[in-house]
Amino acid sequence: MTSEFILIGLTQDSNLQVILFYLFLIMYLVTIISNVGICLIIHLSSHLHTPMYFFLSHLSFIDLCYSSSVVPNTMVHLLSQDKHITRLACATQLFVFSSFGSTECLLFGVMAYDRYVAICKPLYYGTIMTNQTCYMLITASYSAAVLQAGIQISSIFTLDFCSSGIINHFICDALPLIRLSCSDVFLNEILIMLCASFIGGGSLFIIFLSYSYIVSTVLKIPSSQGKRRAFSTCASHLTCVTLFYGTVLFNYLHPPGTASTVSQEMVASVFYIVVMPMINPLIYSLRNKEVKLVLHRLLGHTVIVQLTFAQG
């Protein structure tokens, strides 16, 4: 049984590794600051205690955990000559990474449903999207994601891996680990595909159905201003969904094989693991007037306090 693996990483060029380290460090710091900032803004502002911002705060929390499960370890490997990772550490990284990634998929579906109720059934929004409903949807998302990750881990780590233990990637992801196996992986691939279809496909179906009704409802609004306002409430969500699913589908739904494909997988992985958690809060805050207003108030209050102390 293979007790440890070797992560090849993004590049073997030592100069490029240093550049990537500082680039990842900057992006990771922005990820922490922006996502923690979104959570604090929503927590401290009572008028943002609504279902939409409740789900947005969870998206920020998930993005923070999702990125933290991979980026710090990747940064260490960029500057270290030792690329080894133990079997337990590899399994833990895959479990955490898969759990939060799947939760994000499901949360995008939940947020689409929330927008559907807000736009298509505004008079019933308060009675449908109650606190109990919101907590139930969030709990179901986390639970289904953890279950999927558990099935994935048990399916992959019961395989026999080749003695080299070399993973042609910078993280312990499902596809590189399956490629490393010396066992018959057909049933394992089917099981993983079914889980991924349930999580990703189910969420995409809810998103597509919700926005079909939203578009139909918005087109019936007589005023152009009303249409713009309705569409603007969905713009941030649609942007994040398109970017996230675009890279994930590109990464997982293609014929395996060539070295160029592996390189493309790693580039796509960097985008949805490192870049997406950083830009999600920026997309939501830049397009959201209420978040920007609260941020301006907090910044203004901070400046006043600093000036008061300076004068004192």
TrEMBL record:
This is G-protein coupled receptors family 1 profile domain-containing protein. It comes from the Eukaryota. The keyword Plastid does not apply. Pfam families: 7tm_4. Gene3D superfamilies: Rhodopsin 7-helix transmembrane proteins (1.20.1070.10). It comes from Leptobrachium leishanense. The chain crosses the membrane at residues 20-41, 53-71, 91-113, 134-151, 190-214, 235-254, 266-286. The lineage of its organism: Eukaryota, Metazoa, Chordata, Craniata, Vertebrata. Keywords: G-protein coupled receptor, Membrane, Receptor, Transducer, Transmembrane, Transmembrane helix. GO terms for cellular component: membrane. PANTHER family: OLFACTORY RECEPTOR. One of its GO terms (molecular function) is G protein-coupled receptor activity. It is a multi-pass membrane protein. Residues 34-284 form the G-protein coupled receptors family 1 profile domain. It is found in: Membrane. Its main location: membrane.
